[in-house]
């Protein structure tokens, strides 16, 4: 994907949230409100087996008894859960259709999103699943993947086609009662991606899911379940956008990763939900639970570039259950204008000789607040556990905030835990130095920010890295006066 | 090429430059000397357009164009280069990437396409050889963990890459050992031509043994108090600045 300076310039000139369009597709939307009836109706709409309906209802009852968490360093008006519609589907979406049958308006929307659902993607070796509002509308390359025994399909289909796998693993990493939003998601999730990599298989292409909230007044509750069987490998990418709206939209996803003995999962996210306008109006509330379990010798890497959402509450975590397992977390979180982010990770060391690495880069501009919250926990039996954490914050201007909340709980005296943190500000002298070499201020900031984020950007798959870099520049546009 | 007329500049309402007049023609090398706090570095910053300083009176013209309304990056595009006394660090940005960005921004300002990667590599190779720079050095983060000498050599490398019309070298000799000084000076000499001009800001005569100036100016209290040929530098080396201070105090 060649991206020229000219294009960037044009985008910077228009600098509005570029994914802020709304596609007028006929859709099938449930009335607002949440009750047992709605939960049952969602399950029915999805033609789910009874065990799934019961699991949802159990989650709903748990959710009803729970309170929203208030410990995060974010302030917002609580969503009214009875004013959200819990199911919205583009009417023409039918997962069994081929791409040729897909609504042309939908295809046009993908084009705007920069997703090419065609041969081009195949050349780039990426298989894509696309979730619009509540349903998965297109999954590509099912056949190529099936030849290797890889299952990559909407979770709604997996529930019907592979109930044994879903039943075994759903909720095994993030139980229904885990937290308020996880319980809500468990009750009302409508779609998401399901992926299974068989024993010893190296997935030959990047798997990718694009999430899009299109309808007004709807929430998006997707559920991703990814199982990497023994000694397998998969790299998974996830991208998110939403139209610009004055109201706040709720996104509460759950992602569960299971890395069995010797498996490796790389999970990358570029999150660019609508962040609200420059006065702080509108934007997506992004309350997400992501967690992985690592069995013996398994490895999970979370890489995230978070530039969107009005409020983010997200802690992709690793339970290092098996001996010698490895957990990694690489994060860039950018906040501008009135955005608030409280994000970080949990590394729970249970097995012996488990290792974790946390690299977090927070960039705050405008009047935004950016918090890193992390927990490194070493269990009493986790001999030889090691952790290295590095949290760097970059501030732009005088009205934003950067906060770091690192928690360490070590119950084993052989544990080695290192924590490094820095806070810096883009200096006038740095800008002038760049200016003097002919680099204008906007470009200078992009350069400095990219340099600051490099360790994390390097972890992203090539194609995503370009996109992420571009996103960083756009997100920070206008942040220096 | 560069014409400075009655230039006054201040920082935080404190006047530092109090009426500088200087004309520099293409092909010339001017040395500006003077004691600490005389305004040498301020003059360099003001020519480069640093907005920390306010120009309260007078003008700077480059090839007949008044620079008053010209931003620092546009001045750079027009051929003004400043080798900083204290180059800043930019973590995570390699020397190569930084130079590539700078060159392409200048080209863009002139309506040109990005320089093809092949030409860029060739240029980098050529200029790094000129300054005896190890190629490994170019992939390091800009100025991060560089020794004093490496920073200065990197500044001159950038000058070589950007081929400016007017290069201002602010205390480029400080922090250099004799070998590095020789390399830097020979680099500057090779870059010198009848079409460009060099301004050397220095405390000491040492650098001027390697880069021979056509004119030497002494700055004191924000004014040029004496100008002369290269022999003036020798005189200063011998007598110090005190005699000049006394002479001008009257």
TrEMBL record, chain A:
Residue ranges occupied by any SUF system FeS cluster assembly SufBD core domain in the UniProt entry? 211-452
User: What sequence ranges are listed for the domain SUF system FeS cluster assembly SufBD N-terminal?
Assistant: 122-203
Domain of life of the organism encoding this protein? Bacteria
| InterPro entries, per database record | Fe-S_cluster_assembly_SufBD (IPR055346), SUF_FeS_clus_asmbl_SufB (IPR010231), SUF_FeS_clus_asmbl_SufBD_core (IPR000825), SUF_FeS_clus_asmbl_SufBD_sf (IPR037284), SufBD_N (IPR045595)
Q: Which residues form the signal peptide?
A: none
GO BP annotations of the record are: iron-sulfur cluster assembly
Show the coiled coil region(s): none
Q: Can you tell me which family this protein belongs to? A: Belongs to the iron-sulfur cluster assembly SufBD family.
Provide the protein name. Answer: Iron-regulated ABC transporter membrane component SufB
Native organism = Maribacter caenipelagi
From TrEMBL, chain B:
The chain positions of domain ABC transporter read 2-246
Q: Which InterPro entries match?
A: AAA+_ATPase, ABC_transporter-like_ATP-bd, FeS-cluster_ATPase_SufC, P-loop_NTPase
- Stated family: Belongs to the ABC transporter superfamily. Ycf16 family.
> What NCBIfam families does the record tag this protein with?
sufC
A molecular function (GO) held by this record is: ATP hydrolysis activity
CDD domains xrefs: ABC_FeS_Assembly (cd03217)
Q: What is the protein name stated in its UniProt record?
A: Fe-S cluster assembly ATP-binding protein
Q: Name one Pfam family in it.
A: ABC_tran
What keywords are assigned to this protein? ATP-binding, Nucleotide-binding
